[in-house]
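FW: tagging you since you asked about this chain on Friday. Here's the raw sequence from the shared folder, copied in full. Didn't touch anything.
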Amino acid sequence: MTEHLPRWGGGGGPDLLRRVAELVDIPSVSGHEQAIADHVEAILGGHNGLEVRRLGDNVLARTNLGLPQRLVLAGHLDTVPPNGNDRAILDAGWCSGLGAADMKGGLAVMLEVISSLERPVTDVTFIAYVCEEVDQARSGLRQIEAAEPDWLLADAAVLGEPTASLVEAGCQGVLRVHIEMRGERAHTARPWMGSNAIHRMVPVLAAVVGYKGRQPVIDGCEYREALQAVRVEGGVANNVVPDSAVLVLNHRFAPDRDVDEAFHAIAALVEPEIDAAAGDTVTLLDSALAAAPNLAHPLLSRLVSATGESPRAKLGWTDASFFSARGVPAANFGPGEPSLAHTAGERVEGTDLERAYAVLRDLVCGT
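HL: got it, structure written out here
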């Protein structure tokens, strides 16, 4: 366990690596966030001028200064299950451990920013929420929306996902497509008496393999679309020609398309190989909206300017989608190399933490 640290936001310059280690050493696998929520609530409750609210294991704090704009800083408390990395390791210049990058580094930075506010230029709402790493039906953001929706009102939002302290704009949308090919059972010694549904799936798979994704550029960011077969099921017995085969596709689409447009594009790709008269079907299993980059928004434009670097598209889905769907432009920005998230070697660099802190503090306080 890391040693006790001085009060967050207490001045003298934050020791962000040790702050991250403090958070990493509190287990918070999805569905088990109470201990870290208690810790975050205690940190925030010690600062005058913040309205602090606890909803389940979601922890909320905000300023109410009547400033012209309000910015949400949001981050999830949960992690994926440990992989031999459940305790923090501090070394010169970095901290490793479960969640160090995704996203206790981002949480540490945002907590330090909101704990040390001095003459902010925008009102700030901080949201630390549960169950981001699992089914979105369990998301703490949905719990907050159901119980206290006014806490989600803002002019813009920044999600503290690991981006190596670069702005990753918006996010891709996601949909899963279920394709079933029908056949007719027969004995494998007499296959001509039936129709093999697995064999009939081959041209559909060929169309998926040959897919060329769009790469639209939006607000200067290139969103590269993708399509992958992620599940194949079929077969009755080793001596039976199968009468059904199922393929599940995962499609990542750019924010210039909505779910219907993205689904119809995939349906059109496989349609030449689909025989509805034979009982073949193409259906949408589930979906999540994309989020437009909205980089012209004053707060997000200032965020990009504060980094001094060009933004890039978020190739993946984040809760930027949740905020965007509710009329709040959102971007992803936080310390940590995203490729290390969920790996046994997850870590965050001290220089990355310091850069993220300086950028967010500049955004909130104009300094």
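FW: Residues 16-170+291-365 form a domain with the Aminopeptidase fold (CATH 3.40.630.10).
HL: agreed, and Residues 169 and 293 are 5 Å apart (CA to CA).
FW: great, closing this out.
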